[in-house]
Each structure stands twice: as structure tokens, then as C-alpha cells.
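fwd from M.: "can u put these together and see what the complex looks like"

so here's what she sent:
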Amino acid sequence: MARKRLIVVGGDAAGMSAASQLRRLDRDREIVVFEKGPHTSYAACGIPYFVAGLIEKPEQLIARTPETFREKYDIDARTLQEVMAVDCRGKTVQITDHREGRSYSMEFDDLLIATGALPFKPDVPGIDSDGVFGVNTLESGIALERFLRERRPTRAIVVGGGYIGLEIAEALNCHRGLKVTLVERAPQVMGTLDPDMGALVGDAISDVGIDLRLGETLQAVETAGGKIRAVVTDKGEIETDLVVLGLGVRPNTALAAEAGLALGVRDAIRVDDRMATPTPSVWAAGDCAETFHLVSRQPFHVALGTVANKMGRVAGINLAGKSARFPGVVGTAVSKICKYEVARTGLLEAEAKKLDLDYSAATIKTRTRAGYYPGAGRIHVKLLAENGTGRLLGGQIVGVEGAAKRIDVLAACLHGQKTVQDLVDMDLSYAPPFSPVWDPVQIAARALLKEV
Amino acid sequence: MARKRLIVVGGDAAGMSAASQLRRLDRDREIVVFEKGPHTSYAACGIPYFVAGLIEKPEQLIARTPETFREKYDIDARTLQEVMAVDCRGKTVQITDHREGRSYSMEFDDLLIATGALPFKPDVPGIDSDGVFGVNTLESGIALERFLRERRPTRAIVVGGGYIGLEIAEALNCHRGLKVTLVERAPQVMGTLDPDMGALVGDAISDVGIDLRLGETLQAVETAGGKIRAVVTDKGEIETDLVVLGLGVRPNTALAAEAGLALGVRDAIRVDDRMATPTPSVWAAGDCAETFHLVSRQPFHVALGTVANKMGRVAGINLAGKSARFPGVVGTAVSKICKYEVARTGLLEAEAKKLDLDYSAATIKTRTRAGYYPGAGRIHVKLLAENGTGRLLGGQIVGVEGAAKRIDVLAACLHGQKTVQDLVDMDLSYAPPFSPVWDPVQIAARALLKEV
């Protein structure tokens, strides 16, 4: 009897998590993974730190190579091979092998689509010039790092003030010593925060010497003699040696759409909480797949390695015939910009308004440790809760070292549908090196308690 | 009409929190606080760091002085005045003014007992010698710090391997450069951890150069020429210049017992979740009061500043005629010993056994940050959960910087009666400087999921 075959499209976090999980539970299944790039299973989130020079070799970002998957997991991971088309009814995929320059097809019993996300790229003149970099794949990170070493640029423009843009701006400014200008179209950095909390991050950015240009839009990249010379924005020209695009990503689902799979929020592939699509035998996981927001109770999309890993694990368990569910997310994220830490979970004010929720918000400023303990630094905590019920809706934190990981307590509260009063009562840990006697999230909860 | 009078016995965390909270809600009440020591409202938890020399002046540990309470809060805080007896029926207290050497009585409408805790002191010869110190009051911390500066001792014995003992051992060893021997009667340090996790702390203690003597009992303190010369234990003699007792505390409830108040666990004063005792118009809060353990569902006692503050706040709100409840604790605690961090919440294995719970445990070892990120250090996480239901019962963490505050996520899970599966699914924050892609507590949850 032939072994049942799973084909996985995409060999990074979600795809390889699913494949490994399936292998742990089922020794017989044939598993073939097609990855269009040269690497499998790498930590895309680590790329800014490789660019910063904090990580010596790009190989350190690779969790497992195709060889490891083949030898230790009996997973046939084929790199530089791209799935060009999927026939869901005929249960066949068409593959182009970029190394050999040939095409072939392969049948599947189950198909997992884990094609990840694609970076936004502004459609402006000069955007494909040598010296313009993305940072969403390991190859692009390696190319940027080589450019920094070989060309020794002194000025950089980073386009985009979200997590990726800020992390790259940190890498180039704080670690590589370049003069960095950050260009962001919106009136605030970090659009995943409320404007008031985003402004604190903006101040932090300026504080470390990054030239922050808000409300400014990239219009062209200009070159001279084959090198980047400047960027042109709606407000003028900024000279630079280098441009890095950090504009966020969208689900990479052109292949899925062509195959007739249902798409949802932001064109992410629709899946149930088992990671099954509505199309029989076809599954999806990771940055290309839709998820569910447990606070708004609506379909949602987020591109994060941690969610991709969780989805992959659940897909793998279900593919093995066992049962697992991924209930959804609460919108948690964290980032570090030089000495500043930023975190968020749940809903923003704008999102709460859009959902017509009657809410209150409170923001407090305190210290990360007991005030008398050395190294106590600033922390700002903002909380949102529903009026009447007191149900916690979201939280945002901006502060120095030790500030941001507190967001996990708020995430746990959102998962548990806890109220502000519950948070005030919670038995959180205290000792002077770790916290004021009331944890900052509880100080914020006490302030919010007066409002709701 | 005469103002209604609240008398508070004890002017530290619980007593002053209650008094301040009442004043915020009721501008008319007369509030008189009797504190037998010279200070009000100080951070007892900060004493080890003052002894360490990390905090310059003892005044930095005082949140509010009696003058501040008088002038800003209209609270009559009388220091060096001790309540000697309480007549609950006659609603009168007897006070001795140690400064003036006189006694007087005062009537109350309401009485709040916040007498705190008393340190254990072994009943052995020489224990009252000059050079033997406790560290549970600010005065004792000041005396020890002065001894260190003036006598310049080079060797110290710390008796007791709980939080206080370890923090003082850190202060003397890591910050003051003394040769420290820690004597602990039990076969492990940190009895609030399971033996396997306690052993990790023991290793950490030895690792920083502290001479750790487990299973060894203090029998006498020996002096020569008015100075400490050595301690005698059941295993021999250890020469030293200084002895510090860090043996933990018990509720200070002799006054309450004499007044006929009901006592509960460890002789702590019985209170309901409003902090009212069964005796009309008499309230209790802080280290002298009983609480409730939300995991074991049994009465419990814990002496911690964070719990005392919460209890005081609730007492103050109820004293003002409004309604607040303190549901209880889950047994959360955290401590730092040199570069090591230790935390715990919920039940230990021994406690789960005593409650006849059918449970499983899992312990994992991983890194505080992404493995490739600079500064990623060791973290050990142990979780306990009930078999069948999967309900989380407790967690323990030992690791380096950034490890311990994760205990708060586990505490939130215990408050929410979450299962191990809930914890695996939780949307916790991830970025390489903060965590591996699966947070260590989730890696532990995944390991435990296989068992329950």
C-alpha cells in the first residue's frame, strides 16, 4: 500500500512546524515540502539583529536545515522549488525546480498551504535600484548585511514606522552607527498603538538620534552612477546611501486564490480552528491564513512567527488524525527599539470605537522597579475596558528594560475575559528589583477602575 | 456631632494603605494610627538592598512620614506609641507612649489591627549578643548597615535559607564582599519551592561563592570580648564576625488573641473577604491577618507587602461604607539572588499531595531569549496540573535576568482556573530579545500536556 502523502507549500515556521508535528505522531506518512527560497525553518524575526551585527552568522537563524529534516525527520524538504499551481480537485501541484530549471507535478492526499506573507513595496520610480532592500527573507537580510560591510554606507532611509521599520532603524542607528532617517506616511509610528502611546515611541526614536519624519510619503528613489543618491518625498529630498523598506506585509495568497480557495480578511486563506480550509484535504497555516480575534470576536489576520508556529502545530496534529484547535489570538505583540520596549494586546481605541463598544481608557506612568531600587526606569501603561461590565479590552506598554513582557499578564486576562477589578485583585509577584509593590499593570487597572 | 473615629494599630503597609484609602473616600472621619516603632509606611522588602549598599539612605525606603500623613492626609499617625490592650466590647484601646513614658486610653468606633508579623528567633544561647541582627524592621536594617560600616566585619553567618535569608546573603556576599556562610536546617533552601527547584537555587547560591550548609541547625552563638566569635551548629563550629537571622516570620497576634479575636491558620487573625473580623467594628489586614488560597480553596497565611497593600486598600474602602472584597491569593512570590531570579505561584508537589490531588508535573530548561540573541540565559520552568481536567495547579521558575516575572502569567492562569491546554494556546508576546518563539512557560505547558 502506498504511503499517504502530505505536500506542504512553504518551508518556514508554519509549514515546518506542521510537518514536524505530523512526523512525531505518524511515522508512516510521506511528507514533501516545497520551499521556493534556499532556506527552511529560519527565524525571520531575527533578521534585524543579524543586520545589527548582534548575530554573527546567518546560519544561527536557521533552526533546521533541509538535510536535518531529511535525515532526522524523514521529511523531504526541497528548497529552490516553487509550487506554481494547485489543482484541488485533481489533488495535484505543479512545481518549478529553480535549481535544475525543470517543471514537474506531484499528487497529494493532503495539502498544507504555508506560503507566508509578502512585504509591501511602494510602486514608485527607482524602487528596484541596487541599494534598496527589504528585510522579510533571510536572503534579503544577508544582502543588506553584505552591503553594509562592503559599501560602508553612512546614511540610511528606513521607509515605514511599524515593528519591522523600527527594528531596522534601531539596527542601523544604534548598532551600525549610520545616520538614519525614518519616513512614515501616517502621523504616528507604530500604527498598532493608539496615537498617544505611538507618540511616546516617536519620542523614544528621536531620543536615540533617529531623524523621524511623520506624515511624509516616499515618491521616488534617485540614483547616480548606479548608486542610491537620495529619496524624494512629498516634502522634499533626503540624501542617502541606502534605502530599507519596512512597510509591513500582506498574506501571500495569489496561489491559493488561483486554486479557488476561499479568502477572508486581508485576502488571508479562510480556515476553521483546525486549520482546515473549506476545500476538502486542503489546509492552511501561518502568515497566509486567517485567524480569529478573541476580543473583537471577528475574523482577523496577523503575521507573526509565534502565531504561525501555533497554527502549524495544530495543523500537524489534525493532519495526523488527532484533534487540536487553535482558538485564535488577542493581538499580542512586543518589540524593542534600542533601550525602549513596546508591547500591545487586545483592541486599540480606534478598534473599540469601530466595534461600537462603550469603553474607557486610563494611562499611567510609573517605574519598572521599586522607586528606590537601582535601575528603576520609566514605564507607561494604557488600559481599555468596557464601561458597565468592566471587561478588559486591551493594553499597551511603552517603557525601558523589563517593561514590555508584562503585556503577557494582560493577554492572559483577555483570554480569561477578566475585568479591571479582577486585575486589581490579582496576586502578581513583587520584590523591589522586579516591580513597584503594585505592579504597573495594576496601577493602571486601579486608575481605570475609577472610570468604568 | 463628634467625628466617627478609626483607630489603626500598626503604621506600615496594611494600616497606612487602609487609612489613606479611607481618607480618600471620607474626608470627615477621624483617623488615629499607633505605631510602636519610629517609622511609618516603609518598604520592609527594601531592607536587604539598603544593607547591600544599593540604596544610600534609609529615608529612601520611607514612602510617607508621620508628618506627611498629618499634613496631607489629616491622619494622626503617632510613632513610638504602642497599643498594649484592646477592649472590643468597651471599644477602647490602652496605649503606652514610649517617648513620653506615659499611658493613656482612647475610644474607637472602628478598629483596624495591622500589627504585621514577628521574625522567628531561635531560642539558643547567645542569640541576643551584640552582632546578631534581624532584618525585618527598618531599625534593624539600619543597625546592621551601621555595624557593617563601623566594624568592617569580613565573615558573616546567615541563618535561614528562605527569601529573606537569601536576599541578605546576596547583600553581604555579592555587594558587601563578605565571606558568607548560609546555615539552613532543612535539606534544601527556599522551602516555598519543590526540592528539585530548590536544588537549582542551592546551586546558584554556591555558584556565587556563598558557603551553603544544608541540614545544619544553629545551637549557639559564641562571643569573646563582647564580640561575636563563632556559631555552634549540630555539625561543628563556624567562625564569624556577624550573625544575621533570616528565618521567616509569623503573624504578630498576641494583642489580638488577648482581646479575644478569633485566630486561624498559623494564628493569623480571622477575617472575611471584606477584612472584617467576626467581632463587630474590628477589622484586620496585612501580615497579621488570614487570607484564602484560591487554588487549594483553603484558609491561608502569607506575609508579603503586596498582599498587605491589597488588604489595606479593601479594608479602607469597606471602612468608608463602600464595598470591596479581597478574594484571596494564589501564592505568588519572586526573589532575586545575585544574577539569579526565583519565582513561584500556586501549589507545590507536597501541597498537591496533601490535598489528595491527582496531578502531574513537568520541568523544562530553555532560554530567556531567542537562542541566537545576545544575553539569552538559562531558565527552568516547572508546572503542576491536575490529571484529567488539565487544570493548572502551580508553577516555579528559576533562571537568570528576565526569567522570573513570567510567573505573573501563571498567576493569571491560576486566577482564571485555566488548563494546560489554555496556556499552550495563549497569545503571549514574542520577539527575539524577549523570549524564544514559544515562551518558556508554554514550552513547559507543552511538555506537561503529554502527561495530564
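replying to her w this: Residues 271 and 278 of chain A are 7 Å apart (CA to CA).
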